[in-house]
Design goal:
single chain, 120 residues, alpha+beta, Alpha-Beta Plaits, 2 helices, 26% helix, EthD family reductase, Dimeric_a/b-barrel
């Protein structure tokens, strides 16, 4: 049984952040959770941080995305992604035009070794 994560980095269309979040939280997450193989989902928004200056270290560039969705999978990520795309294409999983498709980034991640905890 796979324990992969599928990460989706996204941005709202310009000036449509409230509409984007309403659609994502109240429509899209439910559509995604209905896909076989998706066992959990959680959204994140970029937290503003200011890294301390360190001599000789370049300043990190700003992230390209404002939002991240993390989907937990219990089957092959390629199979789940194929079903996502099939549902989008058939209209079963409608996408909002408040989602900036030009900047979206998706990737699957597999654990490399066991989870470790501080103090263990």
């Amino acid at each position: 049984m796979a324990e992969d994560l599928f990460l989706v980095f996204s941005n709202p269309a310009a000036g449509r952040e409230d509409e984007f979040n309403e659609w994502y939280d109240h429509h899209h997450l439910g559509d995604v959770l209905a896909v076989p193989g998706v066992t959990g989902a959680r959204r994140y928004e970029l937290a503003p941080t200011k890294p301390p200056e360190a001599e000789g270290m370049p300043e990190p560039s700003a992230p390209a995305h404002s939002y991240l969705a993390v989907y937990e999978l219990d089957r092959d990520a390629d199979e789940v992604l194929a079903e996502f795309l099939r549902r989008v294409g058939s209209g079963e999983m409608p996408l909002s035009d408040s989602l900036d498709l030009a900047t979206i980034s998706m990737s699957a991640w597999r654990a490399r070794g066991p989870r470790r905890q501080a103090g263990a």
